[in-house]
Amino acid sequence: MTTRILHVLDHSLPMHSGYTFRTRAILRAQIAKDWDVRGITGRRHGAKGPDEEIIDGLHFHRTPGRPATGNALMREWRDMGAHADAIDRLVRDWRPDILHAHSPVLNAMAAQRVAKRHGIPMIYEIRAFWEDAAVGNGTGTEGSPRYWLTRQLETHAVRAADAVAVICEGLRGDLLARGIDPAKIIVSPNGVDMDQFGTPVPRDPALAAKLGLEGADVVGFIGSFYDYEGLDDLIAAMPRLVRARPQVKLLLVGGGPCEQALRDQASASPVADHILFIGRVPHDEVERYYAQVDILAYPRKAMRLTDLVTPLKPLEAMAQGRLVAASSVGGHRELIEDGITGTLFSPDDPTAIAQALSGMFADRGFWNARRATARAFVEKERNWASNIVRYEPVYQRLLTRPDRARTAA
Protein backbone atom coordinates (compact mmCIF):
# COMPACT_ATOMS: atom_id res chain seq x y z
CA MET A 1 0.00 0.00 0.00
CA THR A 2 1.36 3.44 -0.93
CA THR A 3 2.51 5.59 1.99
CA ARG A 4 0.66 8.88 2.25
CA ILE A 5 2.63 11.87 3.56
CA LEU A 6 1.04 15.22 4.36
CA HIS A 7 3.53 18.11 4.53
CA VAL A 8 2.42 20.96 6.80
CA LEU A 9 3.87 24.18 5.44
CA ASP A 10 4.09 27.91 6.00
CA HIS A 11 3.85 28.74 2.27
CA SER A 12 4.60 27.06 -1.05
CA LEU A 13 4.67 27.46 -4.79
CA PRO A 14 3.70 29.54 -6.68
CA MET A 15 5.53 31.80 -4.20
CA HIS A 16 9.29 31.79 -4.76
CA SER A 17 11.73 31.51 -1.85
CA GLY A 18 14.39 29.16 -0.58
CA TYR A 19 11.64 27.67 1.59
CA THR A 20 9.37 26.86 -1.35
CA PHE A 21 12.21 25.52 -3.50
CA ARG A 22 13.32 23.12 -0.75
CA THR A 23 9.71 22.01 -0.36
CA ARG A 24 9.37 21.46 -4.10
CA ALA A 25 12.54 19.37 -4.15
CA ILE A 26 11.40 17.20 -1.24
CA LEU A 27 7.95 16.58 -2.67
CA ARG A 28 9.24 15.87 -6.18
CA ALA A 29 11.81 13.40 -4.87
CA GLN A 30 9.21 11.63 -2.71
CA ILE A 31 6.77 11.39 -5.60
CA ALA A 32 9.56 9.85 -7.69
CA LYS A 33 9.69 7.07 -5.07
CA ASP A 34 5.97 6.41 -5.65
CA TRP A 35 4.87 7.91 -2.33
CA ASP A 36 1.52 9.71 -2.25
CA VAL A 37 2.37 13.26 -1.21
CA ARG A 38 0.43 16.47 -0.56
CA GLY A 39 1.07 19.78 1.19
CA ILE A 40 -1.11 22.14 3.20
CA THR A 41 -0.13 25.76 3.81
CA GLY A 42 -1.09 28.18 6.57
CA ARG A 43 -2.63 31.61 6.32
CA ARG A 44 0.74 33.26 5.66
CA HIS A 45 0.72 31.77 2.17
CA GLY A 46 0.05 35.01 0.34
CA ALA A 47 -0.46 33.89 -3.26
CA LYS A 48 -3.97 34.10 -4.65
CA GLY A 49 -5.56 30.88 -5.81
CA PRO A 50 -8.13 28.19 -5.00
CA ASP A 51 -8.23 26.25 -1.74
CA GLU A 52 -6.87 23.20 -3.56
CA GLU A 53 -4.53 23.38 -6.54
CA ILE A 54 -1.82 21.50 -8.41
CA ILE A 55 1.31 23.51 -9.21
CA ASP A 56 4.31 22.08 -11.04
CA GLY A 57 2.75 18.65 -10.58
CA LEU A 58 2.49 19.09 -6.78
CA HIS A 59 -0.81 18.91 -4.87
CA PHE A 60 -1.43 21.70 -2.35
CA HIS A 61 -4.30 22.55 0.00
CA ARG A 62 -4.72 26.00 1.59
CA THR A 63 -5.90 27.09 5.02
CA PRO A 64 -8.79 29.47 4.24
CA GLY A 65 -8.93 33.04 5.47
CA ARG A 66 -6.53 35.91 5.77
CA PRO A 67 -3.96 36.27 8.57
CA ALA A 68 -5.54 37.48 11.80
CA THR A 69 -4.99 41.03 13.03
CA GLY A 70 -4.40 42.57 16.44
CA ASN A 71 -2.03 41.58 19.23
CA ALA A 72 0.86 39.50 17.86
CA LEU A 73 0.46 36.57 20.25
CA MET A 74 -3.31 36.38 19.81
CA ARG A 75 -2.94 36.78 16.04
CA GLU A 76 -0.51 33.90 15.79
CA TRP A 77 -2.64 31.74 18.11
CA ARG A 78 -5.72 32.30 15.94
CA ASP A 79 -3.81 31.56 12.73
CA MET A 80 -2.39 28.39 14.27
CA GLY A 81 -5.89 27.31 15.29
CA ALA A 82 -7.23 27.90 11.78
CA HIS A 83 -4.30 25.93 10.34
CA ALA A 84 -4.95 23.04 12.75
CA ASP A 85 -8.62 22.98 11.76
CA ALA A 86 -7.73 22.84 8.06
CA ILE A 87 -5.21 20.05 8.67
CA ASP A 88 -7.80 18.13 10.66
CA ARG A 89 -10.37 18.34 7.85
CA LEU A 90 -7.82 17.12 5.33
CA VAL A 91 -6.68 14.28 7.57
CA ARG A 92 -10.26 13.08 7.96
CA ASP A 93 -10.78 13.20 4.20
CA TRP A 94 -7.43 12.02 2.82
CA ARG A 95 -6.16 9.81 5.71
CA PRO A 96 -2.38 10.36 5.55
CA ASP A 97 -0.03 7.94 7.29
CA ILE A 98 2.47 10.59 8.43
CA LEU A 99 2.36 14.31 9.16
CA HIS A 100 5.60 16.02 8.15
CA ALA A 101 5.52 19.54 9.62
CA HIS A 102 8.06 22.14 8.53
CA SER A 103 9.17 25.20 10.50
CA PRO A 104 8.22 27.72 11.76
CA VAL A 105 7.15 26.23 15.05
CA LEU A 106 3.48 27.23 14.69
CA ASN A 107 3.17 24.60 11.96
CA ALA A 108 4.54 21.96 14.30
CA MET A 109 2.12 22.99 17.04
CA ALA A 110 -0.86 22.89 14.66
CA ALA A 111 0.18 19.51 13.25
CA GLN A 112 0.79 18.10 16.73
CA ARG A 113 -2.80 18.79 17.75
CA VAL A 114 -4.08 16.81 14.79
CA ALA A 115 -1.48 14.04 15.07
CA LYS A 116 -2.42 13.41 18.70
CA ARG A 117 -6.15 13.45 17.94
CA HIS A 118 -5.87 10.92 15.11
CA GLY A 119 -2.97 8.79 16.32
CA ILE A 120 -0.74 9.75 13.39
CA PRO A 121 3.04 9.99 13.81
CA MET A 122 4.56 13.43 13.22
CA ILE A 123 8.02 14.49 12.16
CA TYR A 124 9.04 18.11 12.68
CA GLU A 125 11.56 19.56 10.22
CA ILE A 126 13.44 22.67 11.32
CA ARG A 127 14.96 24.88 8.61
CA ALA A 128 15.74 27.71 11.05
CA PHE A 129 14.72 28.53 14.59
CA TRP A 130 11.85 30.99 14.44
CA GLU A 131 13.31 33.22 17.14
CA ASP A 132 16.60 33.59 15.25
CA ALA A 133 14.87 34.09 11.90
CA ALA A 134 12.95 37.00 13.47
CA VAL A 135 16.21 38.59 14.59
CA GLY A 136 17.68 38.04 11.13
CA ASN A 137 14.83 39.75 9.28
CA GLY A 138 14.58 42.62 11.75
CA THR A 139 11.28 41.73 13.40
CA GLY A 140 12.75 40.47 16.68
CA THR A 141 15.51 41.11 19.21
CA GLU A 142 17.75 38.45 20.70
CA GLY A 143 17.14 38.09 24.44
CA SER A 144 13.72 39.80 24.38
CA PRO A 145 10.70 38.22 26.16
CA ARG A 146 9.26 37.27 22.78
CA TYR A 147 12.56 35.65 21.79
CA TRP A 148 12.62 33.67 25.05
CA LEU A 149 9.00 32.55 24.67
CA THR A 150 9.50 31.46 21.06
CA ARG A 151 12.58 29.48 22.06
CA GLN A 152 10.56 27.69 24.75
CA LEU A 153 7.83 26.86 22.23
CA GLU A 154 10.46 25.51 19.84
CA THR A 155 11.94 23.25 22.49
CA HIS A 156 8.49 22.03 23.52
CA ALA A 157 7.56 21.23 19.90
CA VAL A 158 10.77 19.26 19.42
CA ARG A 159 10.14 17.22 22.56
CA ALA A 160 6.53 16.53 21.48
CA ALA A 161 7.42 15.41 17.95
CA ASP A 162 7.97 11.74 17.20
CA ALA A 163 11.07 12.57 15.16
CA VAL A 164 12.98 15.71 14.22
CA ALA A 165 14.82 16.63 11.02
CA VAL A 166 17.19 19.59 10.76
CA ILE A 167 18.89 20.98 7.68
CA CYS A 168 22.41 21.21 9.12
CA GLU A 169 24.77 20.25 11.91
CA GLY A 170 24.52 23.72 13.46
CA LEU A 171 20.84 23.23 14.25
CA ARG A 172 21.45 19.68 15.45
CA GLY A 173 24.15 20.88 17.84
CA ASP A 174 21.84 23.52 19.29
CA LEU A 175 19.10 20.92 19.94
CA LEU A 176 21.59 18.59 21.60
CA ALA A 177 22.61 21.45 23.89
CA ARG A 178 18.93 21.73 24.88
CA GLY A 179 18.99 18.11 26.01
CA ILE A 180 17.17 16.57 23.04
CA ASP A 181 17.87 12.87 22.51
CA PRO A 182 20.32 12.57 19.57
CA ALA A 183 18.57 9.36 18.43
CA LYS A 184 15.50 11.47 17.71
CA ILE A 185 17.28 13.82 15.26
CA ILE A 186 18.31 13.33 11.66
CA VAL A 187 20.15 15.81 9.44
CA SER A 188 18.51 16.28 6.05
CA PRO A 189 20.77 18.91 4.50
CA ASN A 190 19.86 21.49 1.92
CA GLY A 191 20.23 20.09 -1.56
CA VAL A 192 19.74 20.89 -5.21
CA ASP A 193 17.28 19.44 -7.65
CA MET A 194 19.79 18.66 -10.40
CA ASP A 195 16.97 18.36 -12.91
CA GLN A 196 16.20 22.00 -12.13
CA PHE A 197 19.70 23.48 -11.72
CA GLY A 198 22.05 20.83 -13.07
CA THR A 199 22.28 21.99 -16.69
CA PRO A 200 23.79 25.49 -16.88
CA VAL A 201 22.59 27.66 -19.74
CA PRO A 202 25.18 29.37 -21.98
CA ARG A 203 25.95 33.05 -21.48
CA ASP A 204 23.64 35.25 -23.54
CA PRO A 205 25.74 37.90 -25.35
CA ALA A 206 22.67 40.03 -26.02
CA LEU A 207 21.81 40.16 -22.32
CA ALA A 208 25.44 40.94 -21.47
CA ALA A 209 25.39 43.84 -23.94
CA LYS A 210 22.07 45.09 -22.58
CA LEU A 211 23.45 45.09 -19.01
CA GLY A 212 26.80 46.59 -20.00
CA LEU A 213 28.74 43.51 -18.91
CA GLU A 214 30.77 42.91 -22.08
CA GLY A 215 34.41 42.39 -21.10
CA ALA A 216 33.62 42.84 -17.39
CA ASP A 217 34.69 40.81 -14.38
CA VAL A 218 31.24 40.10 -12.91
CA VAL A 219 30.51 39.57 -9.24
CA GLY A 220 26.91 38.66 -8.54
CA PHE A 221 24.34 38.06 -5.84
CA ILE A 222 21.00 36.48 -6.72
CA GLY A 223 18.51 36.19 -3.89
CA SER A 224 16.61 38.10 -1.21
CA PHE A 225 17.88 41.39 0.19
CA TYR A 226 17.83 40.89 3.96
CA ASP A 227 20.19 42.66 6.35
CA TYR A 228 21.88 39.42 7.41
CA GLU A 229 22.96 38.75 3.81
CA GLY A 230 25.61 41.46 4.23
CA LEU A 231 25.04 43.13 0.87
CA ASP A 232 25.91 46.49 2.40
CA ASP A 233 29.40 45.09 3.08
CA LEU A 234 29.62 43.89 -0.52
CA ILE A 235 28.71 47.34 -1.84
CA ALA A 236 31.19 48.91 0.61
CA ALA A 237 33.91 46.62 -0.81
CA MET A 238 33.39 47.84 -4.37
CA PRO A 239 35.65 50.95 -4.37
CA ARG A 240 38.65 48.90 -3.23
CA LEU A 241 37.75 46.10 -5.65
CA VAL A 242 37.41 48.53 -8.57
CA ARG A 243 40.86 49.97 -7.80
CA ALA A 244 42.28 46.45 -8.10
CA ARG A 245 40.08 45.38 -11.02
CA PRO A 246 38.84 48.45 -12.95
CA GLN A 247 36.64 46.32 -15.23
CA VAL A 248 34.68 44.71 -12.36
CA LYS A 249 30.87 45.03 -12.11
CA LEU A 250 28.51 44.00 -9.32
CA LEU A 251 25.21 42.47 -10.45
CA LEU A 252 22.46 42.37 -7.80
CA VAL A 253 19.38 40.36 -8.76
CA GLY A 254 16.39 40.14 -6.43
CA GLY A 255 14.69 42.30 -3.86
CA GLY A 256 13.59 42.47 -0.27
CA PRO A 257 13.31 44.66 2.84
CA CYS A 258 16.76 46.23 2.45
CA GLU A 259 16.50 47.02 -1.26
CA GLN A 260 15.96 50.77 -1.01
CA ALA A 261 18.69 51.22 1.58
CA LEU A 262 21.10 49.28 -0.63
CA ARG A 263 20.14 51.31 -3.70
CA ASP A 264 20.76 54.52 -1.74
CA GLN A 265 24.13 53.23 -0.55
CA ALA A 266 25.12 52.25 -4.09
CA SER A 267 24.03 55.63 -5.49
CA ALA A 268 26.30 57.38 -2.99
CA SER A 269 29.27 55.13 -3.79
CA PRO A 270 32.18 56.63 -5.78
CA VAL A 271 31.88 53.59 -8.06
CA ALA A 272 28.09 53.72 -8.47
CA ASP A 273 28.40 53.04 -12.20
CA HIS A 274 29.93 49.64 -11.38
CA ILE A 275 26.87 48.48 -9.38
CA LEU A 276 23.78 47.21 -11.20
CA PHE A 277 20.40 46.48 -9.59
CA ILE A 278 18.23 44.24 -11.77
CA GLY A 279 15.26 43.79 -9.43
CA ARG A 280 13.26 40.61 -9.19
CA VAL A 281 13.15 38.40 -12.27
CA PRO A 282 10.83 35.48 -13.12
CA HIS A 283 12.17 32.21 -11.76
CA ASP A 284 12.52 30.73 -15.23
CA GLU A 285 14.81 33.65 -16.11
CA VAL A 286 17.20 33.27 -13.15
CA GLU A 287 19.58 30.90 -14.94
CA ARG A 288 20.22 33.55 -17.62
CA TYR A 289 21.59 35.84 -14.91
CA TYR A 290 23.64 33.10 -13.25
CA ALA A 291 25.29 32.65 -16.66
CA GLN A 292 26.41 36.31 -16.65
CA VAL A 293 28.27 36.00 -13.34
CA ASP A 294 31.88 34.92 -12.85
CA ILE A 295 31.79 34.77 -9.04
CA LEU A 296 28.70 34.54 -6.82
CA ALA A 297 29.33 36.37 -3.55
CA TYR A 298 27.57 35.54 -0.25
CA PRO A 299 28.82 38.01 2.40
CA ARG A 300 26.51 36.94 5.24
CA LYS A 301 27.00 38.74 8.55
CA ALA A 302 28.11 36.88 11.68
CA MET A 303 25.12 36.13 13.94
CA ARG A 304 23.31 33.12 15.43
CA LEU A 305 21.12 32.65 12.36
CA THR A 306 24.00 32.56 9.87
CA ASP A 307 26.23 30.48 12.14
CA LEU A 308 23.54 27.82 12.67
CA VAL A 309 21.78 27.68 9.30
CA THR A 310 23.10 26.61 5.89
CA PRO A 311 21.76 28.59 2.91
CA LEU A 312 20.58 27.06 -0.35
CA LYS A 313 21.91 29.63 -2.83
CA PRO A 314 25.62 28.65 -2.78
CA LEU A 315 24.65 25.07 -3.63
CA GLU A 316 22.56 26.24 -6.57
CA ALA A 317 25.50 28.33 -7.78
CA MET A 318 27.85 25.35 -7.57
CA ALA A 319 25.35 23.23 -9.49
CA GLN A 320 25.32 25.96 -12.13
CA GLY A 321 29.08 25.69 -12.48
CA ARG A 322 29.66 29.09 -10.88
CA LEU A 323 32.51 30.04 -8.56
CA VAL A 324 31.46 30.99 -5.03
CA ALA A 325 33.00 33.30 -2.45
CA ALA A 326 31.39 33.56 0.98
CA SER A 327 31.90 34.83 4.49
CA SER A 328 33.26 32.27 6.92
CA VAL A 329 30.15 32.04 9.11
CA GLY A 330 29.22 28.59 10.40
CA GLY A 331 26.49 27.94 7.86
CA HIS A 332 28.89 28.60 4.98
CA ARG A 333 31.73 26.55 6.48
CA GLU A 334 29.40 23.55 6.53
CA LEU A 335 28.88 23.90 2.75
CA ILE A 336 32.12 25.34 1.40
CA GLU A 337 35.66 24.02 1.80
CA ASP A 338 37.98 27.01 1.52
CA GLY A 339 40.29 26.72 -1.48
CA ILE A 340 38.60 23.49 -2.64
CA THR A 341 34.96 24.19 -3.48
CA GLY A 342 34.98 27.93 -2.83
CA THR A 343 36.71 30.89 -1.18
CA LEU A 344 35.91 32.02 2.36
CA PHE A 345 36.58 35.49 3.79
CA SER A 346 36.05 37.14 7.18
CA PRO A 347 32.45 38.30 7.79
CA ASP A 348 31.51 41.95 8.32
CA ASP A 349 34.72 43.08 6.59
CA PRO A 350 34.52 44.90 3.23
CA THR A 351 38.32 44.90 2.92
CA ALA A 352 38.41 41.11 3.25
CA ILE A 353 35.68 40.82 0.60
CA ALA A 354 37.60 43.00 -1.86
CA GLN A 355 40.85 41.12 -1.27
CA ALA A 356 39.23 37.70 -1.72
CA LEU A 357 37.44 38.67 -4.94
CA SER A 358 40.40 40.51 -6.49
CA GLY A 359 42.62 37.53 -5.69
CA MET A 360 40.23 35.17 -7.45
CA PHE A 361 40.09 37.37 -10.54
CA ALA A 362 43.88 37.71 -10.58
CA ASP A 363 44.40 33.95 -10.83
CA ARG A 364 42.01 32.21 -13.22
CA GLY A 365 44.18 29.11 -13.51
CA PHE A 366 42.24 27.20 -10.85
CA TRP A 367 38.75 28.19 -12.01
CA ASN A 368 37.83 25.19 -14.16
CA ALA A 369 39.10 22.64 -11.63
CA ARG A 370 37.27 24.34 -8.75
CA ARG A 371 34.02 24.55 -10.70
CA ALA A 372 34.24 20.83 -11.46
CA THR A 373 35.08 19.95 -7.84
CA ALA A 374 32.21 22.06 -6.46
CA ARG A 375 29.70 20.63 -8.90
CA ALA A 376 30.83 17.09 -8.10
CA PHE A 377 30.32 17.82 -4.38
CA VAL A 378 26.74 18.94 -5.03
CA GLU A 379 26.00 15.95 -7.26
CA LYS A 380 27.34 13.47 -4.70
CA GLU A 381 26.54 15.05 -1.32
CA ARG A 382 23.76 17.59 -1.86
CA ASN A 383 21.58 16.15 -4.61
CA TRP A 384 17.93 15.74 -3.60
CA ALA A 385 17.67 12.51 -5.54
CA SER A 386 20.06 10.96 -3.00
CA ASN A 387 19.28 13.15 0.03
CA ILE A 388 15.70 11.93 0.15
CA VAL A 389 16.76 8.48 1.40
CA ARG A 390 17.50 10.05 4.78
CA TYR A 391 13.76 10.25 5.49
CA GLU A 392 13.00 6.62 4.65
CA PRO A 393 14.27 4.90 7.83
CA VAL A 394 12.55 7.55 9.97
CA TYR A 395 9.22 7.13 8.20
CA GLN A 396 9.55 3.36 8.43
CA ARG A 397 10.29 3.49 12.15
CA LEU A 398 7.31 5.74 12.81
CA LEU A 399 4.95 3.59 10.75
CA THR A 400 5.96 0.35 12.48
CA ARG A 401 6.35 1.51 16.08
CA PRO A 402 4.46 -0.76 18.48
CA ASP A 403 2.43 2.02 20.13
CA ARG A 404 1.07 3.37 16.85
CA ALA A 405 -2.71 3.18 16.77
CA ARG A 406 -4.73 5.50 14.58
CA THR A 407 -7.73 7.00 16.30
CA ALA A 408 -11.00 6.67 14.39
CA ALA A 409 -12.01 9.89 12.67
From TrEMBL:
Pfam families in UniProt: Glyco_trans_1_4 (PF13692), Glyco_trans_4_4 (PF13579)
Entry superkingdom: Bacteria
Ranges where the Glycosyltransferase subfamily 4-like N-terminal domain occurs: 18-191
Entries under CDD domains matching the protein: GT4_WbuB-like (cd03794)
One function term, GO molecular function aspect: hexosyltransferase activity
Residue stretches in coiled coil: none
Sorted UniProt keywords: Transferase
InterPro entries: Glyco_trans_4-like_N (IPR028098), Glycosyltransferase_grp1 (IPR050194), PEP-CTERM/XrtA_GlycosylTrfase (IPR024004)
Database matches in PANTHER family: SULFOQUINOVOSYL TRANSFERASE SQD2 (PTHR45947)
Name of the molecule in the record: Glycosyl transferase family 1
Organism of provenance: Sphingobium ummariense RL-3
Source organism phylogeny: Bacteria, Pseudomonadati, Pseudomonadota, Alphaproteobacteria, Sphingomonadales
